[in-house]
Structures are given as C-alpha cells and as structure tokens.
Design brief:
39% helix, 15 helices, 391 residues, Nucleotidyltransferase, domain 5, globular, binds adenosine-5'-diphosphate, alpha/beta, 2 domains
C-alpha cells in the first residue's frame, strides 16, 4: 500500500509517500515558512523542486504538495494518509482520524501549543484535498502509555494528576518503538525477549527503557523539555532555578520559557552552536565552550540512561539513533565510557563505521550488554500503522 505520511508543524508540512511493501519512500519533501515566505522542496521518482511558494496557511501548503504529487503521477496511487501527532494525551495506540480525534487534539492544545493546532488543521485540510482517503493519527506519546504509575507520576500533589493530567507522557515514541523492534530483529530475538534502552539523539533527545517490547520509563516528561540536554533545550532542571531567576533578574514566564527552550542545551553551554557537527569540530580545535557542551551532553545522557535502566530486570542492549546517535562517534564513545559500570565494552573500529559492517553492533564481539546504532524511520512506522488500521 502507498501511504502519504504527513507531519504538520506550526510553520511547515513535511511529507513522504511510503510503499509499505518495499519500505521505500517514493517521494518526500517539505513546505516550510508557511505564513511568511513559503518554500517547497520535494523529490519524486522523476523530478525535484526547490522553489518559493505562496503559502499564507497550511491550506496552500498542502495544495502545493498535492500539485507536486500530481506532476509525479502519484496522487491516484495513494490509498491512505498517516499523520504524525506529537501529543496523544489519553491515546494508547494509533487511531483512525475521526471528528472526535480532531476535537480531542484541539482540546489538548495547552499540552503542545505549537503542534496540536497544526496537527488538527493538517487533518482537516488533508480531508479537503484527499476527500476519499482514510486518515490515521500516529501519536508520539502512545508508545509510552505502558509506563507504570511509579514511572509516570511526578512528586507533586496527586490532585494535579487527577484534575489536570499532569504526568510524564514521553515523546519520540514512534522512533523508540521502531528502533527497539529493529534491534530485536537484528539480534534474532522476539521483541518480548529483549530488554533495552533506546537513545534518540537529535535536536530533541530522549531515552526510553523498553522491557519485552513495552516502554517502562522514559526521560522526556509532561513536555519534551524534560530529561536529556538537547540542542537548545535545557533538559531536567532544578525548578527552583526558575524562581531564582524570576526574583533575581525579574524574568517572567515568557522569558523563562525562551531561556530553557531556545537558549539552553548545547547552544547555551557552548555559547557557539546547537549543532553537534559544529561542536565536535570546534572541540577538536580547542574551543572551550564546545568541549564543555560535549562533556555535559554525554555525561547527562549516561546519567539518565543509568537511571532508567533501573526499570529493567536485565539490560541486553543500548541502541543509539537520531542524527547524533547515528553519526557521532565521539558522543557514543564518551557515553559508553561513562556507562562502563554496566559492562559496556566498545569496539573502536565498529564504532568508527557507525556499526555499518557489524549488523549495527558497536560493542566488542561477545560482550554484554550490546551497544548498537540503528537508523530510525518514523515515517515507515507511521505508514505501517496506517496500513494496519485501514485494512
Ligand atoms: P531532528 O531532531 O531535528 O530530527 P536530527 O535527528 O536530524 O534532528 O539530528 C540533528 C543533530 O544531528 C544535529 O545536532 C546534527 O549536528 C547532528 N548530526 C548529524 N550528522 C552528524 C554527524 N555526522 N556527526 C555528528 N553529529 C551529526
């Protein structure tokens, strides 16, 4: 089946047409800067485009995408649409898009203010442009809904969970689910027989503890701000720091929001960049800020992995994924060194090749736990979920 996978953000629409039989992306692209100076970049089997487009809203953006798919003669072959949804609130699995689902997504706007309205709008606009196609919502939080109460509750009065559903939700669930299933496949095990930690390290980063295919703990929380140090997000923080900044510097809520979401993480620590490639290069040339950022990023990652490992009965494997996890040899090496108490023994040559010639494995032959690198493929999993629900 050919599935159009849509990821509608506040100012962009990313898309891919996935063939679920071959697992190939037949076409992919994005419309960005919606509302400002729209731009479409897309490729298909016969052509590529990279051009400005008049897209004051998501309506014109999706129309531009459809025009491109028409020129590639793909529209008639698409049988369903799968949407990536950042926050699924109460949803524990993917779900067919209905009026109720769209209204629910709108109702939890406060949980992810930039994303949820864009997702709901994307579903409504997709219905207009592809009226006959069934649509499915795949939630980034759903995979984490198997966490036990002890893992998802915060240490604040219980009534805030009951009244306002304040709890750990976790994000990147589609990626954690995909790479943990891939790890089981590559290791020749059933997912039920694998206990692992997955570390999705990109601009946003999170780790998850997965027991027999089910998530039992994760580092992101009520929002994607919790947990690991990220590109521009602080990760976990003593909340009293915010009270202190308010009292000392007069920072209000909006200023604090900007500080911890946009000015912190690798960018804030290094004073240079949020980009791991830039930082690795700069650190090798002696840039002190870059060295500090790398050091803190890897140590906090090891510390959080150590923490969530306590949710597992045994640790069989640690899987690195995402732009940093898949490519940064230095991040994996430094993190595994910090985790040596768990028994990790890295193989330098395998790590150098990103595990490409050793079935994803970068730990030494026969050593346990196994360390692996697996490329994530969220679009494929969204397409496969969509196919399953549509059938
Ligand atoms: P997003 O979370 O936006 O999907 P990605 O998963 O693409 O982000 O990850 C982006 C991060 O991956 C950036 O910090 C980038 O520097 C890093 N990255 C990509 N390629 C490399 C590389 N070869 N070496 C080190 N870091 C890399």
């Amino acid at each position: 089946m050919r599935v159009l996978v849509l990821n509608c953000g506040s100012s962009s629409v990313k898309f891919a047409v996935i063939d679920t039989a071959t697992h190939e992306a037949i076409s992919s692209g994005l419309v960005e800067n919606i509302g400002v100076n729209g731009h479409i970049k897309a490729k298909g089997p016969t052509s590529k485009i990279d051009t400005m487009v008049d897209a004051p809203t998501h309506v014109e953006a999706i129309a531009a995408m459809q025009d491109f798919l028409k020129t590639e003669n793909l529209v008639d072959s698409i049988e369903a649409i799968g949407h990536r949804v950042v926050h699924g609130g109460k949803y524990i699995t993917s779900a067919p898009v209905t009026r109720e689902v769209i209204d629910y997504i709108k109702s939890i706007t406060l949980f992810a203010p930039l994303h949820e309205p864009a997702h709901a709008m994307g579903m409504e606009v997709a219905k207009k442009y592809f009226p006959t196609l069934p649509q499915v919502a795949v939630f980034d939080t759903a995979f984490h809904q198997t966490m036990p109460r002890k893992a998802f509750l915060y240490g604040i009065p219980y009534k805030y969970y009951e009244d306002l559903q304040i709890r750990r939700y976790g994000f990147h669930g589609t990626s954690h689910r995909y790479v943990s299933a891939e790890a089981a496949r590559l290791l020749g095990k059933k997912p039920e027989d694998l206990n692992c930690i997955t570390a999705h390290l990109g601009n946003g980063s999170s780790a998850a503890a997965i027991r027999g295919g089910k998530c039992v703990d994760t580092t992101m929380g009520f929002t994607p701000l919790d947990g690991l140090v990220m590109g521009t997000r602080s990760g976990s923080l003593d909340p009293a720091i915010l009270f202190f900044l308010n009292k000392k510097l007069g920072f209000d809520i909006d200023r604090l929001d900007k500080l911890v979401n946009k000015e912190s993480g690798l960018l804030g620590l290094s004073g240079l960049s949020n980009d791991m490639r830039t930082l690795t290069q700069a650190a090798s040339e002696g840039h002190e800020g870059a060295k500090i950022a790398l050091e803190v990023f890897c140590y906090k990652l090891a510390r959080e992995i150590g923490g969530i490992t306590m949710a597992l009965p045994t640790l069989d494997a640690l899987i690195f994924t995402g732009g940093i996890g898949e490519n940064s040899r230095i991040v994996r090496e430094t993190t595994l060194e910090s985790l040596s108490i768990l028994g990790f023994k890295m193989d330098k040559a395998r790590n150098e090749k990103n595990g490409k010639e050793s079935g994803g494995i970068i730990s030494r032959e026969g050593s346990t736990p196994i360390a692996m690198v697996i490329a994530t493929n969220e679009e494929l999993l969204i397409a496969l979920d969509t196919e399953e629900l549509v059938k």
